[in-house]
Amino acid sequence: MSRVVVTGRVPEIAIEKLRAEHEVDAWDGPESISRAELLRRVAGADAVVSLLTERIDAELLEAAGPQLKVVANVAVGYDNIDVPACTERGIVAANTPGVLTDATADIALSLILMATRRLGEGERLIRSGQAWKWGMFFLLGSSLQGKTLGVVGMGGIGQATARRAKAFGMEIVYQSRSEIDPGIAAELGARRADLDELLAVSDVVSLHCPYGPATHHLIGAEQLAAMKSSAYLVNTARGPIVDEAALASALREGRIAGAGLDVYEHEPRVHPELLELENVTLVPHLGSATVETRTAMAMLAADNALAVLSGEQPPAPIN
Ligand code: DGY
Questions:
Q1: Model confidence over 63-104: pLDDT tens digits?
Q2: Closest ligand 1 atom to the C-alpha of 288?
Q3: How many domains does the chain contain in total?
């Protein structure tokens, strides 16, 4: 029997699955586990099932000890894990691709609609109690039909967002490290472009690339200036892909029309200027937040941990 540390609350069914085979120490406090408590608990662990709010770095791996075999993140993004540090120590790192693709694409499409149709503004207006009535020019937004969606990062979530946008009548361009499957490109009518061209031609730019040194502030002042002044930026990937201060200036000065954000550069803190602006829709990292999706994520993370503990290849290894 091995010792599995779960760093935060996850659906009970995943804990039960782990508990059927191993001793499980699961943090279930109402707040995130403190760093000191986390370092204390991981000592002697054979597996760590981590949430994206916990930093899994060399210090934590050392605190765990040489018996640690696997870090299974309950997320597809793994910028919270120092993967090279895991690899150096022979520790398997794993994530949860696939199971949150549709949920995250749904939120991307929701943000596209909220931003372009000014739904947040409308909701805030009604809740404020201010008088309003239908008017020919009242809260006019922008239609999606015939417009171009630029997808930055055309992996599973980017493709699923493109599929939804196509159903809304949008044309698709994408920027990606590699060409996508030609059959999928044909089905979506998607054309590959470099980032400069994508920014120049898109009416909505939606970010779906992983976060790392190569994508830190991928969208900064220069890229925002390259967008159409009528365009919108949507980010459901990771906050630091966007320079939030530059985005706030661009939105304030009307250099782009609007934005929809699910993730933040210094999450959970939101740039104070963004909070003041009407032309940005802000939601609190809800991309994968459905009961079904979170359950599937936790089960896949449990499967990753269990496989490694049994000496097998995990379903979704990173390294
Ligand atoms: C992920 O899995 O990386 C998502 O951001 C979680 O919502």
A1: 999 999 999 999 999 999 999 999 999 999 999 999 999 999
A2: 7
A3: 2
**CB contact burial 154-184 (16+ within 10 A = b; e otherwise):** bbbbbbbbbbbbbeeebbbbbbbeeebeeee
What's the CA dihedral at 267, 165, 216, 275 to 10 degrees? -40
Pairing relationship of beta strands 204-207 and 47-50 according to DSSP bridges: unpaired
Same-domain status, 93 and 138: no
| 228 vs 224: CA distance, rounded Å | 8
State the catalytic residues. Answer: 238, 267, 285
304 vs 315: CA distance, rounded Å: 6
Distance (Å, whole) CA 258 – CA 117: 10
Ligand 1 atom with least separation from CA of 77 = 3
Distance 238 CA to ligand 1 centre (A): 9
What's the predicted TM-score (pTM) here?
A: 0.96
The pLDDT, as a whole number, for residue 281 is 98
Domain that holds residue 187: 101-282
| Closest alpha carbon to 172 in 158, 155, 156 | 158
Question: Are both 90 and 175 inside the same structural domain?
Answer: no
In the prediction, which pLDDT does 284 show?
A: 98
